[in-house]
Design goal:
Elements (H helix, E strand, L loop, with lengths): L1 H13 L4 H25 L2 H27 L1 H10 L8 H41 L1 H11 L13
Helix pairs in contact: 1-2, 1-3, 3-5
């Protein structure tokens, strides 16, 4: 989970960066993954691993949301066009079409966010329940047997 989130961290923070900047972000992502793994291996406390995952997920989510807003929101785009002197570069009809397209994309993205957050929250809840009730769930898995015991393997999903 940490490694997958570090891949998303790299993809999110290296977007539109120079090759050197992307390499630095890559090094940071590798450092984070290595540090979390080594420290978790040392202390063997699942709460550290869960909190590291949650923090990394929140950082990636907030940066992704910010990037979406900055690159797609028509009001921000208009401001940027004025700042760089391209306010009249495009035909007004074409610009209105692009702005409407971007508003539709943002609307769709905001409709997708609860699905993504909900699935992450559900997985996080199952993971926490699995850690809290591990001995009991392990006994139930043995009693039920395969293949149904797999359904009680919360952290394995």
């Amino acid at each position: 989970m940490i490694y997958t989130t570090c891949v998303m961290f790299y993809a999110t923070f290296s977007h539109k960066r120079s090759a050197e900047g992307a390499l630095l972000v890559f090094a940071l992502a590798v450092f984070i993954a290595t540090f979390v793994t080594a420290y978790y291996y040392h202390i063997k406390d699942p709460l550290f691993h869960q909190n590291a995952f949650a923090l990394l997920t929140v950082v990636v989510f907030v940066k992704s949301l910010y990037g979406m807003e900055v690159s797609l929101r028509p009001s921000r785009q208009a401001k940027r066009r004025v700042e760089v002197g391209r306010a009249d570069a495009n035909d007004a009809t074409e610009q209105a079409r692009v702005d409407q397209r971007d508003r539709n994309i943002i609307k769709t993205m905001y409709q997708m966010i609860p699905v993504g957050l909900g699935s992450i929250a559900l997985g996080f809840l199952i993971w926490n329940l699995d850690n809290a009730f591990c001995p009991t769930l392990r006994q139930w898995r043995r009693a039920v047997g395969l293949p149904w015991g797999i359904l009680l393997e919360g952290h394995g999903w």
